[in-house]
Amino acid sequence: MLRLIFQNIEQSFGPSLSPVSWLFYCGGLTLLGVVVLVPIWRVWMEYQIMRLGMERHWVMTCGRCGTRTLVSGRVCGQCEEDLGIPWIVRFWTASLCSWQGIIPRQVRWGGHLLGSAVFLLLSVWVVAGTGALAPQGTLHRLFLGLGLVALAVFGWVGGRALRIGKHGALARVGDAFMALAAIGAMAVALFLADAARPSQEIPLARFETFANAAQIGARVLQLADREVGFEYLQLDQEHFGYHRVVPLGFSGSDRLPVERSALTRWLVSHLRTHAASYTARGFTVRIRTERLRTEPGQAYEVVERAGQVIIRRVAAR
User: Which end of the chain is least crowded, N or C, by CB within 10 Å?
Assistant: First the structure.
């Protein structure tokens, strides 16, 4: 169903879909880098401000003498008249200024750097796990870009929600809900990206046919009624998603084994001999043969795609 939807999207938008996918993909990578680097930049700037001896203060105009004065207490620094600041305002401003000391600053800086490091590791894990640095196709690149944008939004609002310092409780709750929404959007985008990934093909062999025979490398295999068979060993482990195909040989009028190393020959022999015991342990060992009636004067290839072995004719170039 998703494959059909993706095909309709590609057919509807055509070539215009490619620049849009590049825009979201490059934008997502850029936003991700910005979200990682901004806290580091902020810490560096605050360190430079502290090193220069610059401080941040509240300023107001005294109602009696009209002097613009620094608010360091309840009275004006010029005429010593009560500034009339309500206690709730004094409490609020004092709580904000409490983070301007050396130790609170260092605690805040450590929190910012730790958060950046954790988010960097999370980003590397997501990018590596999804193969985001090697997109395959326009739709795959588009959904990867949307996922990276959502990950960057999660890092930004999640950092705001957990930031050490002045930040209201309601604002933190709002940022937390936005972070959860970003995580959900990222999960959906990465799921669609995985579904839009083109099926990878693994080439297994190649041969050419003439008369009633097949040329496989430097060897010739006589065919019976122009039918060629490709024999292979298939090893599966369903719980871990393990799947492996090992070519064994070609069959026609006789059998032509695939050239393998001594270690591979021993491994194949061992698996075939102990197939029942491996099956009891969760590994399924099968010997299968894929057959195709060929036409003379054509080139064919054997590929593995989506867990299936296929013999097909190579399109003329």
Answer: C
